[in-house]
Each structure stands twice: as structure tokens, then as C-alpha cells.
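Before the break, one more example. Copy the sequence into your notebook; we will annotate it together after we see the structure.
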Amino acid sequence: MTMERRAITRVWGEGSEMINSKSEEESSAKQLKLSERTVENVLEDPSLPVSDEGSETMNLKNEEETSAKQSEPVGYNEEFELDDPPMSDNWKYVNWQKCASSLWVVTKSPYSCDWIKDVLKSEIFNEYKSDEKMETFKIGEDWKFRKSVSSCSCVMFCFESDQWDSESSREVEDLSSYYGLKNVIILLSEKTPDNCPPGQMNGQHNFPVLNFSKQQIAWYKDHLKFYSMKIEKMKTILIGSASWTQGHKVGIFSRSSESEYEWLKMKLKSEYFRGSVENVQSYYISNRGFQQFMTDVSNCTFGILYHTKNRGRINITDVTDSLYDEELDYMSSMMNKNVIVVVDDLNNGSDEEKSRILSSQPSIKEKALDLFLFTTEEKTLVEPLVKMRNSINRGTIK
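Here is what the structure looks like once it is written out:
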């Protein structure tokens, strides 16, 4: 086909008119300025507007480039040419690694997160390994933060309670949106009331909020390490006494109700004891059921004799009105001494108190691998940390 009888559709405001050209030479000089690609696209799509001057012709290549730029997710540009979110002052961060993901603890200067570092090094957060390093930087200027934070498992923003205001809330929301953070937690500390329950921040994202009082933080600094050492020793005993890879079948034996030691049962079932504990069962000791007690013992490879001071006093064995003389002796003989004794709800769980109990009740040392003392305060103050751990791992507070 020759070019002499070519039909070009020209679109105007309300309608269109067919212009028949006798030859290519008779075409307008202005029409000749159109590129071959532009003419072909106009022919294929009559809806594209073309004015007499050709100024409204669409440049498809520029359109594609513009569209691609608009579709780029904010915060993911490798060149980091985007404007930084507004920041009021320097921030600090600590990064904890967990398998392939990361936990970032971020705070505004000059607030110290040292107590949080101690907490995350405890057995409660055993899945994290601290890099033992805290750096100071402006978040918007730090390439490492930009590169890593959008894919991390959780970012925890820490404030003293009097620092948390509408400006801080706005900054956290801006940072969350800018970096595409999926799991954000707000931690308020130091000046919050004792035993302040977790709350919710009013805002677009409704970030979970965890509150810690001065009393709690002081205990974490002074006593959490001692508590963690007890749990670590218990784990070491279980691992050392097992002769197979499946771990022990642990039985908790007590005259107390299961609700009294539910915390211990859950701890033994946690990830921390994986490999040393196969399963955990509870067994009630009755005055009239020694035959049943012997059957229960035969189902276990490791026994825990549990006693709570809420029953009145520490009378396990060797003392007047002792509660577990026969039971401790039988468990020790049948389990090859794979037994520990746990005394709970004490006011004093120190090594000095442990020595005093072992001195007055020597059968515990003779027939059990060890004695563990836990205070009411330990159980009460460890619980918020478990809530924190669950919030970090799942992004929720339950």
C-alpha cells in the first residue's frame, strides 16, 4: 500500500473529523514533525489527543519512567534520595539478631537502654544474641539502619514516660510509615506507676505500649541475673542427667494444686528447655494414694518435688510434720537420684537461705540433685518480661 491515501484521525474537544491527504508531500509541515512511533500510536488509538501544534502528543517513554518512579515503595530506594522524616534530635539503637531476623531497640538521646540490654541477655530472651554495641546516630543519615530496619522482626521505641508526648508520637508514626515497619512496640519506663498495666497509644497505628516502673527496672538490674542463673542451672542438670537425645519425661509432684506451679510447668515446656525436656506432666500426691504415686513415678525419667511456702512453712523432710519424707526417698531410688526440689513463694531466695534449709533438712542434699528457691517477687516481675517477649515475637500483647 502506498502512502498517498493515508487516513489520520484527529481528535477535538467534542468530536473527530477524518482528514484525507492526497499524498505525503501535501501533509502539513507540522504533521511531519511527529515521530513515526507517535503517528502509529495515534492511528492505533484515536482517543489520544493531537492538537494542530502537536504539543499535546504523549511521550510514552517519559510516561513509563514517571509511572515507574511513582510506583517505587517509600524507604526502599537503594540510593536513599528521599527526604528524611522529621527528627527532633539524635537517636540511639541496639540491634539484636534472631536467626535471620533482627530486633531493633531505638531510643531518643540521652535516655539509656542499658537495663533493656540486661533483660534481653537473660534466659527469658535466650533466642536473641546481643551484639554488645550501642551506636549514636541520626536515623535519617544512617545507611545501615535504612538498609536493615524495614525487614526486621520488631522495632521497640523506648522512652521515659515524661518524654512521651504528641511530638514523639508523631515521629514514631512518621518513621513507621517511612520505613514500612510492620511490628512496632512503645516501651515507657522510669516514671510510670508501679504495676501499670499495658496500654494502647491513641493514633493511626495503635502501637502496643508496655509500661515499666522504677521498682521493676531496679529489680531487673539487681536480681534478674540471679533468677536467670537458677533457671540455667536447672537446664544444665536436666541436660547432664539425660542419656538420650529425646530429653526427659519430667513429672512435677506436689501436694499443692497445679495452679500453684503452672509458671514452672510452662517454663519447662518453653523453647528454653528444648532438647532437655520431652514432655511435662503434673501429679498430685495424696495421703491415701501411695500406690498411685508409685505408678506415676514409673512414667517419668526426671522428677521435681514442688513445695510452696503458702502452705505455712518449709517442711519438706527431716523436720516435724514433714510432707515428703517417703516420696523423696522413693523418687530418688527409682529415678537414680534424677530429682530436684523446688520451694516457691519465699520472701528470701538467696544462697544463704538455701544453705540454711539444707543444713536443717539434709535429706534433700542426699537424695536430690539440687534445691531451687523462688520468691513471689521473681514470679511477679518476670511475668511482664514474658509479655514483652511475646509482643516482640508476635507484635501483640495478650
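The radius of gyration is 35 Å. The first strand starts at residue 7 and ends at 11. Try to locate both features in your own notes.
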